[in-house]
Structures are given as structure tokens and as C-alpha cells.
Automatic annotation (TrEMBL):
Principal subcellular localisation of the protein: cytoplasm
Membrane-traversing stretches: none
Cross-referenced PROSITE patterns: WW_DOMAIN_1 (PS01159), WW_DOMAIN_2 (PS50020)
GO molecular function per UniProt: phosphatidylinositol-3,5-bisphosphate binding; phosphatidylinositol-3-phosphate binding; phosphatidylinositol-4-phosphate binding; phosphatidylinositol-5-phosphate binding
Domain of life: Eukaryota
UniProt keyword ATP-binding present: no
Domain WW: 11-44
This protein's name: WW domain-containing protein
Amino acid sequence: MAADLQPEWISCLPSSWSYGVTRDGRVFFINEEAKSTTWLHPVSGEAVITGHRKTPDLPTGWEEGFTFEGARCFIK
């Protein structure tokens, strides 16, 4: 199960790692040394959930979300 974004997620990143946030709110991790990225936290191995996103192009009552594997889904 993925974990919620907490300050300790940021503070416990290894020294060669940083993080970014996509336009749709997903957190990803950057390994500066290896020049690679991943959706999984380098220490816990879990994805970080930042919540669902409501957008004006979705019908009323619907939200956009993502599975643990990174696939987009819609939730009513």
C-alpha cells in the first residue's frame, strides 16, 4: 500500500536523491548520481500518494487518481 506524503519522506531521502512533483500532483524521486527517476521512494520502496485531482474537464463528482503502478483512473 502506498504511503501519504509526510515531511519525513523528504528528510529521509538519501543524499544523492531529490524529488519533484508533476503538474498533476504526483511525486517522483530523482537519483542525481544515476541520472534516473522513479515513482517509488528510494528508502521505503513505496509510491507517495498526494491525493486525487479534481479538474474542470471531468463531470461533476468525478476525480482523477492513479494506481500504485502509475496508471491513471477515474473515481466517482
